[in-house]
Amino acid sequence: MSDHYLVKSFLASRGLAVQDLYVDVEQIRTFGDDAHYRIEVPTVNSVAALAALLEEASKRNVVINRITETLGLFRHARQDIAEYVSLCASAGALLTMSVGPRAVYDTGASAGSIQGKLVGYRLRGQDQINRAVKDVMRGVECGVRAFVVYDEGLLWLLNELRSAGILPRETLLKASAHMGCCNPISAKVLEQLGANTINPIRDLHISMIRAIRKAVSVPLDIHTDNPPESGGFIRYFEAADIVRAAAPVYLKTGNSILQRHGSLPSVDEARAMAAQISIVVEMIRSDFPESRQSPAGKKKLVATHAA
What we know:
Layout lengths: L2 H11 L23 E5 L5 H13 L6 E4 L8 H14 L2 E5 L15 H6 L5 H17 L4 E4 L2 H12 L8 E4 L8 H10 L3 E2 L7 H10 L4 E4 L15 H8 L2 E4 L14 H21 L10 H6 L4
Parallel strand pairs: 1-2, 1-8, 2-3, 3-4, 4-5, 5-6, 7-8
Helix pairs in contact: 2-3, 2-10, 7-8, 8-9, 9-10
């Protein structure tokens, strides 16, 4: 028996895919509310942009299930964070805010070096870990209960703090695409570290997404479009296939309007993001009419995990 066969047998025994999967699974998983997908809008980095986005979405009769801020909690005053919380609660959308300190904001050489681009948003040193936890605690004090995490060590620590009751038990931890997760085993590790949702890198083939879905039970966060700086690709025609492959899935939608990740969208750009959402939802309803989106509703969205 070859070593290659032994490895494949081992993977199969653990319920993992032995290769990328080119055929849809027989039974599509759902969220706890029996929905297949939810709409997430990332890079909503100001209160003004958030208000405009939610207003335009309401006019277009589209539901936004999750708002993700990516500038960093420590870049916002407490009053602004409270407004984020209030606006999202009124719209029935889950607010997810990003942990602040990152290598690219730090005083070290990583921020401007080629190596720094590989380090990405991870944290340098224990002091920065401590500051990141402090940033999360500040968010909790302002009413935030979901956080984007960019560092595997921080993810582990926040999960331990949650288990110990130091963080609220209902705290949700979202593993960012900036962690570079792009295979089933990496996704499995992030789930074991405490991630409640996992955002793989943006350009994975549908077959790769299927293999990741087989490896983990938590929801996946998949981009349907991206700013030019993050690749610029637009996957609207694949949206229904992404739902079939990745459910339960958050479809990250609207950022093709922007030039780069982490920017400050204008009010007009925020309204244009709502228009992009309506296109994605239209295509899903056309190509996968049996699929279901979660309705708006804060309590359900905060408490629900994958079925």
